[in-house]
Amino acid sequence: MKQVVVATALLCLLTISAGFGQKVDYDKKVTELGITLYAPSKPVANYVKAVRTGNLLFLAGHVSTRADNSGITGKVGKDLTVEQGYEAAKVTTVSLLSTLKAELGSLNRVKRIVKVTGMVNCLPDFADQPKVINGCSDLLVSIFGDTGRHARTAVGMTIPLNYAVEIEMVVEVE
């Protein structure tokens, strides 16, 4: 009887510890969250959307555009609410993730989201840029968990073509 209890306990421990080493399938997680990634658009000027050096991938600034190229425009705090700005940041993040997947072939190659720089189109007296860029940070953490927690900057400025949000990202990859 004692051997059966010990064997059962060891089996339980092995099962639990095996689960801790299991990696989350980020591509599947995106689908489970109802997010559809798409083929990224071509750059509109003389730059590239991503540059890899070593194990770091630098994503150029992406603006608040959807898969159909319709944009979310306006100044947050004037034309858009903070909540609408938050949604614009989520839309921008989907664009970033689409470029990331196109570059890597799979989001499962992401080792860590290192840095997010979020820019919010707003008037000089607007002070809730962090609340807007939380749309990006919250989405990254919902997909990548602790791997998605990142250093961040959230600032206000005028963004070209009146887009509501622009975000750039640095990602450590395998």
Automatic annotation (TrEMBL):
Specify the signal sequence span: 1-18
> Any idea which UniProt keywords this protein has?
Signal
Could you name the domain of life of the organism this protein comes from?
Bacteria
**Identification of the protein by name:** RidA family protein
Gene3D superfamilies named in the record: RutC-like
Q: Does the keyword Zinc-finger apply?
A: no
Origin organism of this chain? Nibrella viscosa
Q: Where is the Endoribonuclease L-PSP/chorismate mutase-like domain?
A: 42-163
